[in-house]
Each structure stands twice: as structure tokens, then as C-alpha cells.
Amino acid sequence: MSRISSLVALTAFSLSALAQVPATATASDLALVSAQYINSGFASTSNTGFGVSLKAEAILTVEYGFGNVVNGMAYDVTQVAAQPTVYVTPSTSTASDFTSSSLYTLTLADAASLGDPDTAGNYRHYLANSLTGASGSGSNLTFVPSNGTVITNYASPGPIAGTGPHRYAWLLFAQPSTFAAPSNLSTTGVSPSHWNVSSYVSSSHLGDLIAASFFTVENGTPTGSVASTAAVNTATLSTASAAASAASSGASSAASAAATTAKGSDASAVRAGSALLAVGALALFL
Length: 286
Ligand SMILES: *[C@@H]1O[C@H](CO)[C@@H](O)[C@H](O)[C@H]1NC(C)=O
Ligand SMILES: *[C@@H]1O[C@H](CO)[C@@H](O)[C@H](O)[C@H]1NC(C)=O
Ligand SMILES: *[C@@H]1O[C@H](CO)[C@@H](O)[C@H](O)[C@H]1NC(C)=O
Ligand SMILES: *[C@@H]1O[C@H](CO)[C@@H](O)[C@H](O)[C@H]1NC(C)=O
What we know:
Layout: H1 2-18, H2 27-39, E1 58-64, E2 67-68, E3 74-75, E4 85-90, E5 103-110, E6 122-132, E7 149-152, E8 166-174, E9 193-195, H3 197-204, E10 209-217, H4 240-259, H5 266-285
Parallel strand pairs: 3-10
Antiparallel strand pairs: 1-2, 1-4, 5-6, 5-8, 6-7, 6-9, 8-10
The structure holds 2-acetamido-2-deoxy-beta-D-glucopyranose (4 copies).
């Protein structure tokens, strides 16, 4: 197990070392992240999810000290201790939605582990409203949303020991002019706490979730049962229509993964590890 973990960690390092902040997103990049988001259980309306669907218009690149987050990868508490830089990369067909008058809300939320849901709901690790930023001109469409009001300062992931691999997601929402922050989340310096992403979105009249990036952090050995999500088959995601069917099959596999409380999911961890190694090897050979 530890050999597999270190191989996966090594691969993650190789991938992140190679990964750069992209200049544009392709339709298949957006389809892939949408399928991964569903497959990770985040769209679920139970407290294992956020109850909000991703309508991906951009890739979110989350740059920590170790490199860029690879969606679905596991990181150590120390790797995500310091606040990252978050980059937004639209595609040529969505770039016009990111203008100098656009506003965004950015949050980092914890949806707990699939095998050990948090009955109190999601947990807020960061929240900023009224961020601004327009898609770049020329060939590089990437921008860093900034100049907003930080409601909850970055509180680094630190899951309770034994509660399994917690799923953390950076979520970028479109913030329309009708947005109104709830009175208890309208000023700077609100401590991190439990909240429900979907309740926040509906009560504040926030817009669509337009970009997301996610990873897991685990503390100690799970005492409960842990469910794993299946890998997303990128081969089926080369066209938008294939993406739609992959996304819906992803939804059912995430649901069955959540329903299956397989104690000791070492076999699926090995499968996930081999898939990552295959991707890593490919990236290294290209
Ligand atoms: C695109 O711009 C971003 C932000 O300015 C930069 O970090 C990134 O390296 C650029 N990407 C490419 C591929 O040039
Ligand atoms: C933030 O504000 C400064 C001026 O205060 C401006 O120059 C910059 O373009 C703004 N950044 C974004 C991303 O809107
Ligand atoms: C804000 O108020 C709502 C509604 O009363 C409550 O559910 C929520 O927990 C409060 N949030 C914070 C951060 O205090
Ligand atoms: C979040 O939703 C769960 C049900 O999924 C509920 O039990 C809990 O009270 C909610 N938490 C907050 C802080 O609103």
C-alpha cells in the first residue's frame, strides 16, 4: 500500500511539475471536469455533495506551493497549508462571458468523505464575493479573479482523524447583480463553519457554478467504511455529445459508489493508481 501511495505521489509530482497554467480551455477539457465533478459525488443533493451542478465554462487551475491541483488527487495537509493562487481559463467560445463587468464568488468547501458523510453539512474553508476579472485578450484567455471581499479567510484543510478522504472543492460562481449576501456572511472575517453550499447559492441568488477544481485530504486511517469513485474514461469525452452520456453514466456510478460501503477499497485504490500511472507515463513520454 505504501509503495502504491508513493508511486501515486511520485506520479502526481511528475504531473504537477509538468502542468502549466493553460492559455485556453477546450470543449473536452470542460466536459472532462464536469464528468469528474459528478463522478466525485459533488452534484449530489445529500450531505455527501453540494447539491449544485457544474456548468463548466472555464478550467480552474489551483496553484499551491507543490504545483497545480490534479482533480481527484490526494494531498497531504502540509501541501495545502498555504492559500493557493486560483487561475480561470475560459474557452474561445465562453470567453465572452468573462468581461470587465463580470463578478464572481469563489469558495473552498469540504463535502467530507463518501464513506463517512458529515451530518452537519458542508464546511466553508474560504469565501470571497465580488471578485473581478476578464478573460485575457489574444491567445491567452487566463486571468486571476481578484479585488473582491474576502468573507472567510483561507482555513487550510485539516479533516478529523479517521473520517476518510475528505473531498475539497474550489468552486467559482457567476455572481449576478441580483446577488445579496446573507446578513451573517456579508462582512470580512467570518470564521470557517458548517454551511450548505446549495442553501447559500439559493438564498443569496448566486448564479451558476462555472468552474471547479477538487482534491482529497485524509488524516489517519479511516475508522468507517470508505467508498471510492470510478475513474472517468477520457476516451469517451472527445465530443460534447459523448460528454453528456459520460456525465450521466458518471452520475450513476457515483451514486452506486456512494451506496456501496466497501470496507477496505484497496483494489479500487490500486486501479485508480494504475490509471494515474498510465496517464503519468503518457505525459512523460509525450
Ligand atoms: C497564461 O496566462 C497566465 C496568467 O497570466 C499565466 O500564468 C500562464 O503561464 C499563461 N499560460 C501560457 C500557456 O502562456
Ligand atoms: C484590481 O484593481 C486594480 C486597481 O485597483 C486594477 O488595476 C486591476 O485590473 C483589478 N484586477 C482585476 C482582476 O480586475
Ligand atoms: C447564517 O444564518 C443561517 C440562517 O439563520 C444559518 O443557517 C447559518 O448557519 C448562519 N451561518 C453562519 C455562518 O453563521
Ligand atoms: C445542511 O444540510 C443538512 C442536510 O443535508 C442539514 O442536516 C444541516 O442542518 C444543514 N446545515 C446547515 C449549516 O445549514
